[in-house]
């Protein structure tokens, strides 16, 4: 576990890059730092492997003050994917990937096996790429090498500074999946920097949104999506994603209060009359106190004209509380959804035309986003 | 035709003599350049790790200062200290070689992409490992090109070493002027040029070898 308590960073030129940062990176969690350019993401990351020192505050790794850990050993235990890739131009791809295992004096065969395995993981044929030099690879391929170089020595903590920025959408998705799988499987602690909110939402356990050297909000993707604390967070997440996350409005948004209902004590003829008059084939029946009892269908009513309403009420059609989620009805196979207050007082019926309209709108938006 | 025949005869009579001039020339040039390399390359590398900007600037200023003294004047200035002959010639040329070597080596190491240096640090190389495995190998082509250019200068300037009695191809030229012998003047000049071109060629090949297969 990595913990930052009131950490500040002031650069030599007096620039206050990080202001009172409080963060916890829990073991086995994928943490995403996100925010506008220059907000201090890379600075935060470099504090963690001591490429830069913080000005004040407290930074601990597994409870140990980071300043008490030998920086060389610390770095060999932390994978680091640098923002500018930074492959060694005079070394082959093999030597690049094997850098840290070699520093740790791994057995030659073990290194070779590991490198091949990693190359395959990122879809690069070992036969073809092992002996190439970085400049003989495309930008995206170089970036993949940058990523696996950080994984080679199987570090428990991996720092990744915009590791997928140069990749096409497909390889990007693939590597995101791979990363999530890796992290779940081998329990890695990952600190991941990105500019891409979709990427963050997809992979993060914890999202840390920063601005001007400060943490604006941190939490699970769900928390940020459903409870953005201010306008900046909302703007950064974006209207579309927020709406999608909110899902469908609650039942009350679709209530049709004009829908007819009839008291159970009324005559069946009267009920039929109302239904025909309002062109309804189903109607809620309420008791003397307006509490919902069940549904009367026009078909049953016409067929059993001599009966009383209370004999024909279908009590199996359940009513929804006004606070219930619309999804519940959408998921059921019912054709009518009576809506009631907490005390079962009848309010109205779900307006299915309106619901259909909203559903269509959402479908349009979603396909609009992906296309 | 007659001229060529006479020139061949000239060589037949003088070749031992000419080769000793040539050897002298090479010795002076290479001893100075080697000393200069031994001093400047580590110094320049050290300077890239130096935090003190003022000290760095002072070192460059000193090297630059020697460079500004006219060659003949520097030879003359060294006579009271080292007398005449081989030593003052080597010292003077050594001083001349300092700046170009220092500057190229420094610039070579300094020009390495900061991202690469940072990656090396982040992977957990120690400073010495980083220098040996990353920075120097990447900077070697730059350093070599500095050495090549400087060596060519020095070979050319060694021709002047004759004025303080150090010998070399300059002697041949001076003797030719003295005795009005065109063959001697021509041979001295031509050999100095050929020497410089040969060194350029050889170093050029080494340089390319060192920089093959990288970006
Ligand atoms: N060595 C330095 N000296 C002074 N200021 C610096 C230094 N390094 C970074 N900064 C400043 O600190 C701020 C944060 O930089 P940082 O690299 O952490 O941003 P970032 O969030 O990673 O941005 P990006 O998304 O563009 O990579 C920037 O305003 C930057 O100019
Ligand atoms: Mg950055």
UniProtKB/TrEMBL annotation, chain A:
It is a peripheral membrane protein. GO terms for cellular component: plasma membrane. It is found in: Cell inner membrane. Keywords: ATP-binding, CBS domain, Cell inner membrane, Cell membrane, Membrane, Nucleotide-binding, Repeat, Transport. It is an enzyme of class 7 (translocase). Its main location: membrane. It comes from the Bacteria. Residues 2-237 form the ABC transporter domain. InterPro entries: AAA+_ATPase, ABC_transporter-like_ATP-bd, ABC_transporter-like_CS, CBS_dom, CBS_dom_sf, Gly-betaine_transp_ATP-bd, P-loop_NTPase. Its EC number is 7.6.2.9. Pfam families: ABC_tran, CBS. GO terms for molecular function: ABC-type quaternary ammonium compound transporting activity; ATP binding; ATP hydrolysis activity. Residues 251-311 form the CBS domain. GO terms for biological process: amino acid transport; glycine betaine transport. Belongs to the ABC transporter superfamily. PANTHER family: OSMOPROTECTANT IMPORT ATP-BINDING PROTEIN OSMV. This is Quaternary amine transport ATP-binding protein.
UniProtKB/TrEMBL annotation, chain B:
Pfam families: BPD_transp_1. It is a multi-pass membrane protein. It is found in: Cell membrane. One of its GO terms (biological process) is glycine betaine transport. Residues 22-203 form the ABC transmembrane type-1 domain. One of its GO terms (cellular component) is plasma membrane. It comes from the Bacteria. Its main location: membrane. Keywords: Amino-acid transport, Membrane, Transmembrane, Transmembrane helix, Transport. Belongs to the binding-protein-dependent transport system permease family. CysTW subfamily. This is Osmoprotectant transport system permease protein. It comes from Halolactibacillus halophilus.
